[in-house]
């Protein structure tokens, strides 16, 4: 198998270089390739019909397993010979490479059962997995369902400085990664087959964690959320967690679109690694908030307090998103237009601001 792949790579590389020097030859190569595709597809359809009949005979117990395998082998050999003969009648160009492609298409069990080629792409920020089983044409790749996991650095800004990252005047610590999100979304092309614009609609879960500065803690006093000094012992850990279900609506703009011709129609090749800008909005509802304190004192080595938050946090969130994407690298900035904390709090910085890296994308 590795030898065949290496040989085909060398043949295609030589053909590409020759085509660059001779545009007419490039056109001839495309026509020849289309003829090869037409012959192989036609003969394989006939072959699969005979395979189906053999399988039916086996299912009806008219033949045993040995006879079934023998007949399938004979059918595959027959159509391999038929395809080669028809190609020889068309053209002798790239004869040896063509024979290798025919043999691979007819006899390789994986190609007979697997419609697409799965991909695993490693990027600077994460991993992108493309599950292409069932996808056969360029059109099939223009829509997908994607599951995404992101690691996020979340902070809060004041109303007059909405994009001041890691504001030292904030009431909470500026931590690089203190949040995460999980999203499943549907993506489809907007416009014709050559359009570089895609729309994405999804549903997801978001978790934000906030830690007060200077070993202080969140507290609910008289229906008001405050931050105060901790007086029960030596504080080991403290944080406030907000949990949301949200719906993102994005648009993805491909900056360097690459195209492919298939049966006389030109498509944007969504299998290629291409730079994209992502812009969109999201809306969500808060499903839970809780406070956590862990400390020790002279009587106990470890005491844990958990308390459900009932005041000071808004139930709804709405914001915008801007990101860049290439292969396994997905980086975005997300800004809440509505404040996380309401008027029942004395916090000075209430508007969420997140920087996220998508660690894993699984595309179906």
Tell me the fraction of residues in β-strands, as a range. Answer: 35-45%
Q: List the uncertain runs.
A: 1-28, 108-116
- Please outline the major beta sheet: 8 strands, antiparallel, barrel
Strand order of the largest sheet: 3-4-5-8-11-13-14-15
Mean pLDDT: 81
Determine Rg (CA atoms, Å): 30 Å
Helix/strand-derived category reads: alpha+beta
Q: Give the ordered list of helices and strands.
A: HHHHHEEEEEEEEEEEEEEE
Q: What distance lies between the first and last C-alpha atoms, to the nearest angstrom?
A: 27 Å
Q: Looking at the structure, what is the overall shape?
A: elongated
Helix content: 25-40%
Instruction: Please give the number of β-strands.
Output: 15
Number of helices: 5
Provide an overview of this structure:
With 364 residues, the protein is an alpha+beta fold. An 8-stranded antiparallel beta barrel has the order 3-4-5-8-11-13-14-15. β6 and β7 form a beta hairpin. The radius of gyration is 30 Å and the shape is elongated.
Please write out the topology.
Elements lengths: L1 H20 L1 H37 L5 H26 L4 H13 L1 H5 L5 E4 L4 E4 L12 E15 L21 E11 L7 E14 L5 E6 L2 E6 L4 E21 L4 E4 L2 E4 L7 E21 L6 E6 L7 E11 L2 E8 L14 E13 L1
Parallel strand pairs: 2-15
Antiparallel strand pairs: 1-2, 3-4, 3-15, 4-5, 5-8, 6-7, 8-11, 9-10, 11-12, 11-13, 13-14, 14-15
List descriptors.
alpha+beta; single chain; two-stranded antiparallel sheet; disordered N terminus; 364 residues
